[in-house]
């Protein structure tokens, strides 16, 4: 067989590849860390959930995690996405788990596979299929025969699928750890006698699958035998595993928090996340995972809840749209690099604890080759401190850790952010601009409209003289359930004449309701992320004779956690009308006719196929503020390549689809007006409400539509609006970085970690610098703020201080204007020669626009 040299090369590289990929890694552990192929390892892991983005985004997200200094990707496995009905499996598109694992493997990264298969995860029903609740005799997550049968069946299916592809490290694949169950230890005792036997069964069942890599159980204090119990929290430095021979692993470090419709926007400051991670490794931690590193989107009806938003941004280092969130992403990247510089000394050296002050301490690691690593911590929540360590002085801001990979030079301090901040905007493009004209003869834009009837369409599904549970009835095949009845009103009733005195009073277990009488919307109400049940009391208009009462009850994501979560119900429990001559009429036990779902849903009008099953009315001006309306229009893709979000600020509540793909639930419900601090102090323990913003604004205004869902033109956008909105104000917004900022001080680390990696030696006296970079193909078009002196404030609102070098702007402009990126150092000749404000620690702050 003849071979050209190039094909020979390919042949040999294929050969090498297959040899190396077939080389099984032996993953074990000791008290200090995981041991992969005989080597202890410190591991930075990052959660990216495959169904919360699209396959087209996966390679880039994984590459960004690797570039951000991660060794591993972590994902849950989403059972209800994979087994929509018993024995009927789905592993395609966003649920193509095999493809996702291949992408991680091909990027040269490890994978932590948290199978669960109960996962919570703010995911619908915690990931367990709703149908399983209706298999008679089933109780979830306890010593229950049915649950254990189905759980083992699914877990085995996943394990076998991974084995078949040789995905476990023991087979040469990327999976180094696998998880069974999820945070069960926190509620084990609530399950009484069934709790502990179930947890032990889950552990032993998992072990029996012989995957060749360790199993973990998070928040499972009694994880037996070789199963490693791990920590989930904002801080895990104080965590210790349940046995002296298990390593300290942090499965969930929350770099932000999730949102519910009607809540404020939580943020966790990068200084505090970095502090928590540095403390964890300082105190002997060996594997840390960010939950989430990219949160992504709860497309369609996948969000849990109730009330979890469609966005699962999580304030993560990579934002929902796939852009690096700066400075968070880059600050953590520097942290990871600094920790990696310490890896072998920390893993093989001896650790000594030194007290440097009342609330200041150092952990010093030294190894037999004379290497020395130190973590200097100041856990004082208020005061910065100067500490002496090995004859040098170090400035430690309050609530910070400095990392000294050689016990001398400060490579990183968790509170000194050197990376730039990006200013991100949603730049609107009115929908009209992308809508297609129906013909070249008419300039009219076209909207197709289909109105749902307020009540039973076609025949009722059933009739009952009682109010039924919503979830038991829909089994989550849809969010919607119609409760309808009729009421005869005598023509002598007062309220028919003396204005509206009739009142509808209803109570529901959750989650939301729109009340219609005689096809007119009378009122809406809903619970919230804290309290699911709610009451609606609203004046109503009745007529003499027969009145049609139609109540549209809705779920907004099913319960995803908590003991016995699958038994939490929803739907109406009481319906009354007051104001009659004879008092209040109680309709709770009236004759109710029920219909599961909407006609448009049932016929799939958001799909090409279903669209023809109903009669659409074509109009150039769509109706506005009309409840129960389906809108359909044809649009072009927004120009450019930036990610796209649908601006639904002027719509009411409903769902949206593009080209038949479910974007998700939209609801620009506003957050409380109060509870947002004017500024966020990163110092001190974080809690989810600590640094909220967005008070009085919609919790979620923009809805991510992946670029890959668009064709260049002819895209069908379908919207179902429940209560009324203005579709002419819908905009497709492009997510763009419009500006960049930087702020560094003289006492910030000046060491370039890349050069440290290459073994370059450092001299005292180099100074910190600001590195600014605009997105590709854009330039720094203006310098909006520049001050060398003692400026303060945050990006977007820096203010000049009492000390200011008057030519700061011209120095910065000279270095940066009309460039894609630039570096301005505090050692710039101009700055150095300036005799400026003696005794002041100099700071440089810059804000620049990108165009
Ligand atoms: C895997 O490594 C452990 C210790 O690190 C060792 O005891 C064991 O024999 C190794 N197993 C294999 C299959 O190489
Ligand atoms: C610190 O200084 C003292 C006194 O000069 C000296 O004995 C000691 O070796 C120094 N320590 C280090 C770590 O340089
Ligand atoms: C009160 O009046 C309403 C409407 O006229 C009627 O439907 C209902 O049966 C009456 N209830 C009682 C308790 O008489
Ligand atoms: C949720 O609703 C309850 C009851 O109406 C209310 O007390 C609470 O403040 C609401 N929470 C939020 C975050 O709006
Ligand atoms: C749903 O139906 C089941 C079976 O009939 C019943 O046990 C359960 O209590 C119902 N749930 C609710 C919330 O009503």
From TrEMBL:
SUPFAM superfamilies: (Trans)glycosidases, Galactose-binding domain-like. Its EC number is 3.2.1.23. Belongs to the glycosyl hydrolase 35 family. One of its GO terms (cellular component) is apoplast. Residues 770-851 form the SUEL-type lectin domain. Pfam families: BetaGal_gal-bd (PF21467), GHD (PF17834), Glyco_hydro_35 (PF01301), SUEL_Lectin (PF02140). This is Beta-galactosidase. It is an enzyme of class 3 (hydrolase). One of its GO terms (molecular function) is beta-galactosidase activity. One of its GO terms (biological process) is carbohydrate metabolic process. It catalyses: Hydrolysis of terminal non-reducing beta-D-galactose residues in beta-D-galactosides. The keyword Signal applies. It is found in: Secreted, Extracellular space, Apoplast. The lineage of its organism: Eukaryota, Viridiplantae, Streptophyta, Embryophyta, Tracheophyta. Keywords: Apoplast, Glycosidase, Hydrolase, Secreted, Signal. The keyword Signal applies. Residues 1-24 form the signal peptide. It comes from Dioscorea cayennensis subsp. rotundata.
